[in-house]
Amino acid sequence: MRGGRMSEPAVVFTIVAEDVQDLAEQASRLLLSLITEALKDRGDARVILSGGTTPRATYKLLASGISAQGIEIEKVSWFFGDERWVPHDDPQSNEGMALETLLWPIGAPAHTVHSWHAGSGDPVECARRYDAVVKAAMGTARTSPDILLLGIGPDGHTASLFPGAVAHLPDGRQVLVAPDICGSNTAPQGLSLPVAAAAVQGGAARGWRLTLCPDLLRTSRSVIFLAEGADKTTALRRARKGDPGTPAAWIRGRKTYFIATRDAMGPEQPDYGRDIRNA
């Protein structure tokens, strides 16, 4: 997207999983394949991880796959798409869950894990620091992440982009969460733009949240959405159809995958992209 307009996705796939275990198996195989592809094609891999409960089983299976295939883990960099305002040892921490289920089991070197360092100090300053960290680690402000893993909330949020919430940007602006909150059309002329991070408060967010901006997220080469549970059906349908009022619809990669359980899909059959389980 440039200038506030969403571009058409290059390729969109829908994978319908039988249940949560099948979802984890499908997702972990895809993630492992994409990491391997990035290492082969570009020599390293940059992965943005999701939090919450849905990816927990996926991370455990991915850790086993990485270990079994002997992936060069020092060449994989890990980021977190969003975080609650808690330290990593809090049970609610996205980073803590990923460390426990994936990053510690594979022995990821500390310098490859890019933490928000949440839960201490000022959330807006924390977002400012992570903006700088992500820019430095990506090489340039517009270098593409290889893989982005996301969830979908019942209200359509993804990462911590909540409808109706206010984003406090590292450059000092406060704007409503929108597809282009970090983009040039929302910034005063001549202002150096943040591309990575925002502190979010309001909407359905309880307390402070930290999130990467949609402007950065949709530069990802591959985007994977995971959805399970009947309470996600409406939000998933809106996201897949590109509803502009649904934050999950704002994010597309060069390739975008929706991996959803049958109860999350609802009674309708996939009508956007193709069901690659049956291809």
List keywords for this structure.
6-stranded parallel β-sheet, 11 strands, about 20% strand, disordered N terminus
Structural commentary:
The chain is built from seven helices and eleven strands. By secondary structure, it is an alpha/beta fold. It has a single domain, classed as Rossmann fold, CATH 3.40.50. A six-stranded parallel β-sheet has the order 1-11-10-5-2-3, sandwiched between helices. A hairpin with a 7-residue loop joins strand 8 and strand 9 (209-212). It is globular, with a radius of gyration of 17 Å. Residues 1-9 and 184-192 have low confidence and may be disordered.
Structure, briefly:
By secondary structure, the protein is an alpha/beta fold. Helix content is 29%, strand content 19%.
Q: What kind of assembly state do the chains in view correspond to? A: single chain
Give the count of helical stretches.
7
Overall domain count: 1
Which CATH first-tier class would you pick? Alpha Beta
Q: Which percent bin holds the helix content?
A: 25-40%
Rg over CA atoms: 17 Å
The overall strand count is 11
Judged by helices, strands and strand pairing, the structural class is alpha/beta
Give the amount of beta strand, in percent: 15-25%
